[in-house]
Design brief:
single chain; 315 residues; mainly alpha; Cyclin A, domain 1; 3 domains; 3 strands; 3% strand
Length: 315
């Protein structure tokens, strides 16, 4: 009879004909009777979920299984570390035969981590951790970027190309896949690489890996631009309304999402009589002032009542 059957078949000595409440103590792993105090079962296994740690340092102290498995590590988070000291768990010295055995195990473990593919991923994922902090990427975007980079290694697409270049293109593709609003210029600034070089590798990944990626929604960039130029909340809401009306008329199709967001922010700031220049908006969006002027003309020529404001004609 196991401990669970003992718990279910327990008959209290004080109240033999009545049902009693059983109390479980998670800290000691005991199950006891609430009426007579008898300990029915000891060392009961905890069947609940694992404790979720908030930071990397809390994994070993709050979880029974250690760090979670992830694609953003070269060993997927399942690393092995063989201690250098030739002593067992009790502190006694190992025998000569066991010392030679562990020496071979350490050598094999070291050689397995020194393979070309492992060295490549170790360098790339170290850079990925830095990009995650610089660009404030989500865990989903980091996992997707690591998955795309592993596919490039398996298909030998990155052969002959620099690791930072291929990783930057993988990060941009992951941002497009997870709808994380990060432009290719943001990634180029974070990695100190040329935008055209990253875009060339990105097109290569889309073609060879057969990636299906959606375009960014321009609404995702409105908050970023209004914060940079110091616009009000009303300007932000009006810009969202203008953009929704432009999408209904299919004006935004085929246009740069960042350029569309910058244009509606500029027009909303003019209507609300805020001192936001075209140059400030273009610098915040990373596009030219000519692009904003051309899109302003197209949006004013469209039959949208919100854009027929006399203030826009003066601008």
């Amino acid at each position: 009879m196991n401990e669970y059957s003992e718990v279910s078949n327990h008959i209290c000595k004080s109240n033999k004909e009545k049902d009693v409440l059983l109390v479980s103590d998670s800290s000691t792993g005991e199950v006891m009777c609430s009426s007579c105090g008898e300990v029915i079962a000891e060392n009961v296994a905890e069947l609940g979920p694992e404790s979720s740690a908030q930071s990397g340092e809390d994994y070993l102290s709050k979880s029974r299984t250690g760090r979670k498995s992830t694609l953003a590590f070269n060993d997927m988070g399942l690393s092995t570390v063989i201690q250098q000291s030739d002593k067992d768990a009790t502190g006694k010295n190992l025998s000569g035969e066991m010392k030679r055995t562990f020496y071979r195990l350490r050598m094999w473990d070291k050689n397995s981590k020194a393979l070309p593919g492992h060295r490549n991923m170790q360098k790339a994922f170290t850079l990925l951790e830095g990009l995650k902090a610089k660009l404030s990427l989500t865990d989903a975007a980091v996992e997707q970027a690591a998955y795309i980079y592993r596919k490039t290694l398996s298909k030998k697409i990155g052969r002959g190309r620099s690791i930072p270049m291929v990783l930057s293109a993988s990060v941009y593709a992951a941002c497009r896949f997870t709808n994380t609003p990060r432009t290719i210029q943001d990634i180029a600034n974070a990695t100190n690489l040329r935008r055209t070089s990253i875009h060339r590798i990105y097109r290569l990944l889309v073609r060879d890996l057969d990636l299906t990626l959606e375009t960014y929604n321009p609404v995702s960039f409105i908050t970023r631009i209004t914060t940079d130029v110091g616009a009000s909340e009303k300007t932000k809401r009006d810009a969202v309304k203008f953009l929704i009306k432009a999408e209904e008329l299919m004006i935004t199709s085929g246009k740069n999402p960042m350029a569309m967001a910058a244009t509606v922010v500029y027009m909303a700031s003019i209507i609300n009589e805020e001192k936001v220049s075209q140059t400030r908006v273009s610098i915040a969006a990373g596009i030219s002032s000519v692009t904003i002027r051309n899109l302003c003309k197209k949006l004013k020529d469209a039959k949208i009542t919100s854009f027929s404001d006399p203030k826009l004609a003066k601008a």
